[in-house]
Amino acid sequence: MRRNIKIALVGIPVIIMTIVIAVLLGLIPKSIMLNLYGDIITKIIEYQLVLKIASIWISTVVIYKLSKELLNRTMLHLRRTTGEIRMLAKFLKYILIVMAVLFSIHQVYPIDTLLIAFGAFSGLFLGWALQQPITGVAAWIFISIKRPFKIGDRIYLPTLNIVGDVVDLDIFYTVLNQVGGTVGSEEATGRIVLIPNAMLFSTPVINYTRVEDSPYILDEVVDKVSFDSDWDEAEKIMIRAAEEVTKDIIKATGVKPYTRADLYDYGVMMRLRYMTLAKDRVRISYEIVKRIVKEFQRNNRVDFAIPYVYSYQVGKRMKLSPILTRLKEPVGF
């Protein structure tokens, strides 16, 4: 309610200033404005005008409360998320506020006359000053109705290189809780990022959790295994670790972990791939890596590949080492 009052306190002076500038520019004759102000002052004095305006705002609040309750019940019945309910409720609130303001102004003076006076001047700067805000409002309406993403989703903006969880959607901004940025992995950091809605018309958006019933993505853990390791044993250890950690996800998706492999200079890069929760992939990856490392340490048939740096001097010493060792051995008689 306080925010609505602030909007009214800011909006009324803007309208009055616009009309005054229009009179100074000669867009509206002064005689019309004198008659307009006279009518307004006369009507404000009337006590019934105050009651009418008050009843408009009281009715608006009551309608909003009832509509919000009906919206909550309907959306919950349709198994929608709280994020979608909040977005639609906020959209409904702004529409009711605009209607209440227009009805209130109409009680003071016919709204058509006021709109003509306002439109005479507003057309001069709308195209220049309000291009981005209007685009932002249009994007907000599109997102609220079409819902390419909703509050609670994790999205990625490739052109901005930003990953974040949507925490709020305002008229002009989409508010994200940044994922990564201050840490090396994909975990929510608590750092708030404001994305202008106008940018969303020209920016690709990748939604990690678009499908509510299946918030899963494919992830992988890479292990560098030495050439002399038992391939089958290493593969068995990795798959078993993933199956133990992601058993609930395997049950929900029906997709089991599997491996792929590449060669590199010091061994084999074995890639363990599995389905994971989009918002919990860091923890799940940690649990899998922990199990693999412990099992590799206990098993003599597998080992990690470690890069080896060779130089001429090191090689020379290694060649001389067996000879020096034999020379130092005691000679028996």
Describe this structure in words.
The chain has 333 residues and is an alpha+beta fold. It has three domains: 2-124, no CATH class; 149-207, SH3 type barrels (Roll); 216-298, Alpha-Beta Plaits. 56% of the residues lie in helices and 17% in strands. The protein has helices at residues 2-24, 30-45, 47-77, 82-108, 111-122, 126-129, 131-146, 231-245, 247-253, 281-298, 312-328; strands at 154-157, 162-169, 173-179, 188-196, 206-207, 216-225, 258-264, 267-277. A five-stranded antiparallel β-sheet has the order 4-3-2-1-5, with no helix packed on it. It has a three-stranded antiparallel β-sheet with strand order 6-8-7. It is elongated. 16% of the residues are buried. The mean pLDDT is 78.
Labels describing this entry:
333 residues, alpha+beta, SH3 type barrels, Alpha-Beta Plaits, 3 domains, five-stranded antiparallel beta sheet, three-stranded antiparallel beta sheet, 11 helices, 8 strands, 17% strand
Concise overview:
The protein has 333 residues and is of the alpha+beta class. It is built from eleven helices and eight strands. It is elongated, with a radius of gyration of 34 Å.
Overall tally of structural domains: 3
**First-last Cα distance:** 106 Å
Mean pLDDT: 78
* Percentage of residues in strands: 15-25%
Shape: elongated
The major pleated sheet works out as:
5 strands, antiparallel
Helix content: 55-70%
Strand arrangement across the biggest beta sheet: 4-3-2-1-5
